[in-house]
Amino acid sequence: MSNSISGKVVRILSEREMLINKGEEDGVDLDFVFVVLPKEIEVIEDPDTGEKLGGMRKVKLPLRVVKVSARMALLRTYRSETVNVGGSGVAISQLFSSPKWEKRVERINSGVDFEDDDIEPGDPVILVEGGAAEVPSVLFVDEEN
Predict the structure, then answer these.
(1) Looking at the 3D structure of the chain, how many domains does it have?
(2) CB–CB of 107/77 below 8 Å?
(3) Spatial separation of the C-alpha atoms in residues 106 and 76, rounded to whole Å
């Protein structure tokens, strides 16, 4: 990700929206996808030799640009899953009920397993080149430079 746009989370507005400190002046446009990263780089060592192999940052969450001004952008979560919240489940009370499918959209700081994964102002963000289809689970430090 050599010529990528990188910035920081400025403010979390809701469970689905946040502002970043990059906008049109920095080349940000509608539908760009950014990922939120942890502030710290995790150093990876070879388990046999202890040699440092490099660094990485685990992606916290991808978000899509939905509004842009000159110097900031509004990002919103976009990934969703369809879940059955109705019948045909394991519980006897649901056994004879019809399934009820519901679309749930990913939210900021929800379903997070570790406190380190919470998103807060100051967290780095970086543009994902290739868009939503290319969101990696980790970024190597070399990819960020």
Answers:
(1) 1
(2) yes
(3) 10
Residue 131 corresponds to which tokens in the numbers above? 């868009």
Encoded tokens for 72: 């900031």
Residues in Cβ contact with 144 at an 8 Å cutoff, skipping those fewer than 6 apart? 1, 4, 6, 57, 126
- Residue 120 falls within a domain, yes or no? yes
Q: What is the pLDDT of residues 74-97, one digit of tens each?
A: 999 987 666 666 666 556 666 667
Residue 126: domain span: 6-78+107-144
How are beta strands 138-140 and 52-58 bridged, if at all? antiparallel
**Confidence band of 2 (pLDDT split at 50, 70, 90):** very low
20 assigned to some structural domain: yes
Does residue 114 have a pLDDT over 70?
A: no
Residue with tokens 């967290």: 123
